[in-house]
């Protein structure tokens, strides 16, 4: 028996139960203290209990439990003293969907909503992602000097499979059950500013979460700009947990990536020259791509790619026919 897995599951079940009952607390401050303390405990528990496991195993365990703890934070901010979900609805929201809007599950189950387009999109994106993974392997084996090209194909390929593929299939399944979920990644290539990219197009669940648990609570007390920077700081910390902790390397780099993006977003709203750039039909998209791609080695540093993403790619391709790449 895998004792580590048993401990992880037991801890996850504890999070599930605590996360359900916390919103019943009338004192929101008390609920916040408990749920954020629980989030911190979750980080150290998941990182500690998996210390001897592979980096990929650690990443999955750490991210899964941290996601569940963040769901609990969202519940406390959404429902204060008056739980809006049944336990079954809470389980569906917390365990079955990556989004961060529990209100969508208040009417679960309901009559089906249109879902076919999500299935078509999901399957097609998975197919594209698999092709990119094969391309990544081909470049890696035949063009040693093109490391970044291989890494880029790997990153985009995995993103196509997970973010644009599996999550769309997940959305289809929930829409079939009457839950009005939407795409969480919405044509990010159309973004003309980092504000639009992070706020409206890339990982909507994450932006909704940081807005709900950081930006909105802090905006009135410290102002919108510091609150926005605090939201990016939290994003950086959470990505440190997901990326640097599993490989015990690269600490500070993902955080720096999000600090840079927070500063650039501030510049987009305050500096006239930058405003003119993001107002240009073509330069605005170049601006976004440059800020996303150039500092990307900070976010996905070499150790994470080597010990998490490459094994993940190889595990996926091992299930598929070998093309001799």
UniProtKB/TrEMBL annotation:
Protein name: Membrane bound O-acyl transferase family protein
TM ranges: 5-25, 31-49, 87-104, 116-139, 145-167, 251-267, 288-309
Lineage: Bacteria, Pseudomonadati, Bacteroidota, Cytophagia, Cytophagales
PANTHER family reported for this sequence: LONG-CHAIN-ALCOHOL O-FATTY-ACYLTRANSFERASE 3-RELATED (PTHR31595), OS04G0481900 PROTEIN (PTHR31595:SF57)
GO biological process: lipid metabolic process
Record pathway: Secondary metabolite biosynthesis
Listed InterPro entries: Wax_synthase, Wax_synthase_dom
One function term, GO molecular function aspect: O-acyltransferase activity
Native source species: Ohtaekwangia koreensis
């Amino acid at each position: 028996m895998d004792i580590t897995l048993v401990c992880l599951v037991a801890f996850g079940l504890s999070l599930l139960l605590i996360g359900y009952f916390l919103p019943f607390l009338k004192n929101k401050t008390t609920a916040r203290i408990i749920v954020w303390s629980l989030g911190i405990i979750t980080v150290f528990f998941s990182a500690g209990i998996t210390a001897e496991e592979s980096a990929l195993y650690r990443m999955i365990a750490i991210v899964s439990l941290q996601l569940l703890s963040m769901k609990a934070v969202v519940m406390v901010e959404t429902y204060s003293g008056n739980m809006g979900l049944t336990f079954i609805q809470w389980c569906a929201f917390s365990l079955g969907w990556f989004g961060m809007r529990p209100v969508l599950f208040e009417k679960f189950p309901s009559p089906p909503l249109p879902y076919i387009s999500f299935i078509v999109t999901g399957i097609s994106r998975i197919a594209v992602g698999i092709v990119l993974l094969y391309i990544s392997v081909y470049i890696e084996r035949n063009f040693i000097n093109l490391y970044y090209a291989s890494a880029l194909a790997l990153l985009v390929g995995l993103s196509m499979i997970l973010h644009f593929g599996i999550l769309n299939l997940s959305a289809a399944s929930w829409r079939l059950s009457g839950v009005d979920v939407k795409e969480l990644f919405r044509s990010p290539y159309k973004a003309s500013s980092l504000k639009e990219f992070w706020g409206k197009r890339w990982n909507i669940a994450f932006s909704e979460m940081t807005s709900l648990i950081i930006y909105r609570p802090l905006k009135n007390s410290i102002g919108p700009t510091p609150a926005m920077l605090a939201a990016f700081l939290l994003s950086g910390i959470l990505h440190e947990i997901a990326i640097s902790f599993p490989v015990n390397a690269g600490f500070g780099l993902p955080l720096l990536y999000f600090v840079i993006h927070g500063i650039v977003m501030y510049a987009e709203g305050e500096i006239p020259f930058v405003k003119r750039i993001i107002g240009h039909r073509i330069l605005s998209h170049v601006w976004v791509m440059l800020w996303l791609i150039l500092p990307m080695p900070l976010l996905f540093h070499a150790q994470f790619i080597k010990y998490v993403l490459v094994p993940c790619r190889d595990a996926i391709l091992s299930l598929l026919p070998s093309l001799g790449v």
